[in-house]
Design brief:
The chain contains four helices and ten strands. It is globular.
Amino acid sequence: MRLFVGVPLASALVEELSALSLRLQSQEDGMRWTSPESWHITLQFLGNTAEYDCIVARLHELRSPPVAIQLDGLGFFDRAGVFFAGVAVSEELTLLQQRVAAATGGCGFVPETRPYHPHITLARNKSKSVGPLRELKARIHREPKFSGFVAEEFVLYESHLRSTGSRYEVRERFPLKLA
């Protein structure tokens, strides 16, 4: 199983991101646009693993309060060819991400060493050329404002790789609550 842990998005935010994506995309833009069903905020990528039972048990033990989520503008990972909506890094979100990493550490997973950079991937460049990203940047005339939401759960997803992009299946849900 190819697994990762993430925060699902509120429906109002999905609607706002959908409207933005529809406004920016075109048939010949050279980008592979992600579907709204795939949008999430990754807390930890676990990869291919047979440790499903351990992961689920450890994540069910995790206690963390609900987390306020606010988007932080649009951005690009130029070298990776990714267009994304950034997520504001808050103390609460960082703490949740660290708690998830600590929980899965009990199953042998090593935490990421790079700084946490939460985001929602909206599109990927289909080619190695920088042209499609440059053209997409030129179509963004002003930073949109997005609704915030309170995440009341996080999810264990299974990723199914396909030629048209990954499809994500919810395997388990974990409520965020104070105690």
